[in-house]
Amino acid sequence: MSVRRLYNASLMGALALLVHLCMVDLAICSSNFTDQLALLSFKSSIKNDPNNVLSNWTKETNFCGWAGVLCSRHRQRVTSLHLRNMGLGGNISPHVGNLSFLQLLDLRNNSFFGHLTDEIGHLRHLKTLYLFHNMLEGNIPLGLHHCQRLEVISLEGNKFSGRIPKELNTLPSLRILALGQNELVGTIPPSFGNISSLEEFGLNANHIYGNVPTGLAQLPNLKIINLVFNYLTGPIPPTIFNKSSTAEIDLTSNAFSGNLPTNNGLFLPNLEVLLLDHNQLTRNIPSSLSNSFKLTANSSCQLVYWTNTKTFRQSKTPRTCIYLKIN
Predict the structure, then answer these.
(1) Which of 1, 56, 174, 314 is the most exposed place for a label (fewest CB within 10 A)?
(2) Which UniProt keywords are present, listed alphabetically (predicted)?
């Protein structure tokens, strides 16, 4: 190959590399601009910012330095939006769904209202969603099941209504599903028995009726189940009392009926809290139930006997283990 041809080949290679780098830079700039626009749209939907938290959210400053915003180190993409306890009020802009690298959305303990739109389902990297204690209403968006990396969904203390999306059972890493203190209706989807990763399930203070699905009670990693103040009926699935992982069971104020499992059906070595009062359960309490609690000679647990009229405390230690005695 002549020197001239070698020179031309080298020049073409250098130009190709330059074009590639320019295209990469352009793509990064374009993506970063999308994040900036999404955040500015979020700000424009805020109607009340009493502490001027968003005062530095301006086009003249780098959005990675804005209050509550955390970006990835190299690509400068928004990975966290953390604005809890800020007194913010307004709608959650659907353009938040354009923050395509967002992993944490924490807006808890504010005054956000209106609907949570299906655009939330565009956040394919989202792992943690904290929206509890706001005033959000309408249906829980079906699009959430597209966020396949979700580990925590915490929506309690809002005004969400309608049925619980059965599609949430497709989330392979979901550990915490907290939907309490809303206005949800209907039954617990039987498909929730497929969420094998689930550790905490809260559905307290809604309008849920029907039976507790057997599959839900059998989930191997379930530690906490809170279904207090609903309209659930039928027998309590016996498998809920036969899992070593269980630490807390609160089924207070429903319409459960029937018997508790026999002594042979009880295996709760890590149980710390059991609340079953204000149901329609029969009086027979298996003698081994108290032995199921996580109590040792040096235990700091407090064993509490609940009746329909009073509470009797055996000790004054800080940790609480609760046992129902039906009158």
Answers:
(1) 1
(2) ATP-binding, Glycoprotein, Leucine-rich repeat, Membrane, Nucleotide-binding, Receptor, Repeat, Signal, Transmembrane, Transmembrane helix
CB contact at 8 A, 232 and 208: yes
Identify whether 75 is part of a domain. yes
211, two tokens: 């039976």
Structure-token pair, residue 121: 């389902």
CA–CA dist 31, 77 (Å, integer): 8
Q: Indicate if the alpha-carbon torsion angle 298, 318, 285, 203 is positive or negative.
A: negative
Tens-digit pLDDT string for the chain (327 aa): 565 555 455 545 544 544 444 444 444 444 588 999 999 999 999 999 999 999 999 999 999 999 999 999 888 999 999 999 999 999 999 999 999 999 999 999 999 999 999 999 999 999 999 999 999 999 999 999 999 999 999 999 999 999 999 999 999 999 999 999 999 999 999 999 999 999 999 999 999 999 999 999 999 999 999 999 999 999 999 888 888 888 899 999 999 998 877 765 567 788 888 888 889 887 566 666 655 555 433 344 434 434 333 333 333 333 344 444 333
The CATH number of the domain where 110 resides is what? Answer: 3.80.10.10
pTM of the model: 0.83
Q: Residue 232: what are its φ and ψ, rounded to 5°?
A: -75, 145
> Which two three-digit tokens encode residue 32?
């970063």
Cβ count within 10 A of residue 327: 9
Q: Which residues pair with 232 in a beta bridge?
A: 210
Question: DSSP letter at 271?
Answer: B
- From the list 300, 327, 326, the residue with the least C-alpha distance to 314 is 300
Phi first, then psi: what are they for 155, rounded to 5°? -120, 10
Return the closest-CA partner of residue 92 out of 127, 123, 52, 71: 123
Total number of domains in the chain = 1
Domain membership of residue 65 (yes or no) is yes
Asked whether residue 209 is domain-assigned, the answer is no
Does an H or E element contain 8, and which? helix 3-44
**Rounded CA gap, 179 and 127, in Å?**
17
User: Is 19 a domain residue?
Assistant: yes
Reported as type and span, the H/E element at residue 281 is: strand 280-281
